[in-house]
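Consider the tokenized backbone below.
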């Protein structure tokens, strides 16, 4: 009998087989996206609500496409400059 999870077949892993690589994640949930961007989830939510950061809405779920979010954050921060040392 084959193993299954939620009715889907599950491949058994044999130690002699190379592990199968997962494809890169395209859309990210709030917490993993915030962690990958090194910002808090609350800040990412606020930037999304303010329309600064783009998101994808899927049946009530919010997902983030990291390259688009990174570009928006770069654009947001490009107008600010860090103070010089000693100021």
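A designed sequence for it:
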């Amino acid at each position: 009998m084959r193993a299954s999870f939620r009715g889907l077949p599950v491949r058994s892993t044999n130690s002699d087989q190379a592990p199968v690589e997962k494809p890169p994640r395209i859309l990210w949930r709030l917490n993993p996206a915030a962690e990958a961007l090194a910002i808090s989830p609350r800040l990412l939510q606020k930037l999304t609500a303010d329309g600064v950061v783009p998101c994808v809405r899927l049946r009530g779920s919010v997902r983030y496409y990291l390259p688009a979010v990174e570009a928006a954050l770069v654009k947001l921060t490009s107008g600010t400059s860090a103070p010089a040392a000693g100021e």
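The chain is about 35% helix and 10% strand.
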